[in-house]
Design a protein that fits this description.
CATH topology: Rubrerythrin, domain 2
Order of helices and strands: EHEEE
Number of strands: 4
Distance between the termini: 26 Å
CATH superfamily: Ribosomal protein L33
Helix content: under 10%
CATH architecture: Single Sheet
Number of domains: 1
Strand content: over 45%
Shape: elongated
CATH class: Mainly Beta
Structural class: mainly beta
Strand order of the largest sheet: 2-1-4-3
Length: about 60
């Protein structure tokens, strides 16, 4: 199997669910390039628990 280079799999978690004390409810998996994006990634995604679009940030 060929190596994908600098690409790594990351997990995005809803910030609103996490701050309310319900971690791990809404998570997405995606990949990112570590060379071009060294910091934590954040995207607006749909949260099934909140039933709206919220900011999802990368978790370690």
């Amino acid at each position: 199997m060929a190596s994908k280079g600098n690409r790594v799999i990351i997990h995005l978690e809803c910030t609103e669910c996490r701050s309310s004390g319900v971690p791990g409810v809404s998570r997405y998996s995606t990949t990112k390039n570590k060379k071009t994006t060294p910091g934590r990634l954040s995207k607006s995604k749909y949260c099934r628990y909140e039933r709206k679009h919220t900011v999802h940030r990368e978790v370690k």
